[in-house]
């Protein structure tokens, strides 16, 4: 039953087996979990790579995995709120592409879902609203 619930939530990209020193397995799927070690390797990697690539004035990397049917401590679903001058005169899709480029390794190997709020400093000054993330709907809206 647990494997079915996990499969239904995997909705945005193909799930990859995660390299981790403490894998947690349910129904044959492995997850990067921080429950035992207490550290946040994926979150920290996202934060570092985005900082290095885009020099943000504001950056928040939020682990939203708890909102999904994954083991406690999993790092697979994230929301990134980033404000950077690198986004000046750049269309919304290009902002997202810049974020994706900076963290491509994590997207390919460990991050299952990513929500991005990317703004210029001027856009952030006008509105700091980042919206509320929707609840997991099981992938097919079931």
From TrEMBL:
GO terms for cellular component: iron-sulfur cluster assembly complex; mitochondrion. InterPro entries: BolA, BolA-like_sf, BolA/IbaG_stress_morph_reg. Pfam families: BolA. Belongs to the BolA/IbaG family. This is Uncharacterized protein.
